[in-house]
Specification:
The chain has about 525 residues and is of the alpha+beta class. The protein has nine helices and 21 strands. Strand 15 and strand 16 form a beta hairpin. The N terminus and C terminus are likely disordered.
Amino acid sequence: MTQITTGVDPYTGLNTTNIINALMTDAQQPLNQLTTQMSTDKSKISAYGQIASALTAFQTAADALAPGKPLTSSTAASSDTTTVNATGTALTGAGTYNIAVQKLAQDEQLTSAPLSSTSTVFKTGTLTINAGGKQTDININIHNNTLSGLANAINSSNAGVTAAIINDNPGGGSTTDGTGNITSGPRLVITGSGLGANGNISIYGNDLGPVGASLGQFNYDSEFGNPGNSSMSVTQQGQNGQFTINGTQVTSTSNTNTTAVAGLTLNLNKLSASTGSGSGIQYQPTQVTVSNAPVSSSGPLQNFVTAYNNVLSTLNSVTAQGQPLANNQTATDLIRQLNNITTTSYGGGTLAEFGIMHNAKDGTLTIDTSTMNKSTTADGGAGLTNVVNNMSTSLHRSLNNVLYTIIPDQESTLNQDVNRLTDRQTSMNETLTQTKTALTAKFTAMSQTVAALQSQLSSISSLSGTASNSVMTAIQNATGSAQANPTSTGTTTGSNSTLNSLLNTTSGGTTTGTSGG
């Protein structure tokens, strides 16, 4: 059976491939329009994603201006860092602080008698540790009932103490005296964690398993001391640190203090040099000088301005003519909303009054250093802080609405449209496939018909030269007309008409020829 492949059909003289492609191009126009709409929707979804990303970064920058968040940083310099080291965080009161360290804080420490090995096995059971008023029960099982296992279990228990193993035998291992008593070796050391004088430690061992050394040898009571069957002893008493700041007495459970001066961290490293003794002792203070950076160089404010300008740039980019959100009401409203938020009065003042103002040309924010420094000199930045704190709170609510309601709603609508168009696209592709298959079948059938006619004409010509010649001439004239312009869509109709005429003529000639025979 004759099949149409590509190129010019040898029987009809038609370029069936070009004809079918031209017909399919016309049929595919609705699909092309649908694909264009899908691409437009996806571009809008991508644009909303860009806006959301920029707004999220802007919200983070705005949140850094919320109440309780410092606007500017401080620097602290110590005249003797070996005694007192200091670091400023933010908005620390500028000035000089004279700090004299009278006593360093230290935690209570308990140490056991030496043991033969870190792999010494203990009975399973429970170690109960009470430190600073907090009680913790630690389960001792076959997986942690060695000296090393006990130390690890204590450290992972969050009991308010730390455990370590020290070995006072220079050669490692352990040594014994002549009677078999262990005189040096690994010891369990338990130390309070930043509890100072309040870090009294009690330990109670409760044996449950039958095999191994007793957990009771680590017993120690903070009130009554060491029971007879225990090897634990106090090797360091807990105490609070004491120091003065400009003559004011301060106590601290830790040698790192963050509360004496707001925003200032003091690390007490050693006692201050002193003269005299007893009640007449005098401590030489260390000078800590604190200076605040100008508000105009504030990292949080600079970040806010940069993030705002990035949002504005993103919005302008996606709403420009020819871009996905050109003339989009949601994006246009957002630009207007951001402008309103940054020009509104908060707590009796505006950002512009403190030097954060809009560029008249493009709407971006800039910081006028001179205006900001001048406006914050008198009150140390309190007025500006009040304005940005209130703005931050209002902006966070507004951005939440945009990020978690408005944009998601827009994206949801667009995604639904993309899904609907995808379903239509699938259906239309199936229809187009069926259409092409049907066209191919029709042209194949036509070619087969013409081939059969040509075969019959050849037979007729051998019987009657004159009759067959007239029929052949008609066929040649018909197929010649069909070949004139077989590639254009407009020719397709003409070709079909010519072929119909051809088939009618051929049919009539064949009938006549047969009757004459």
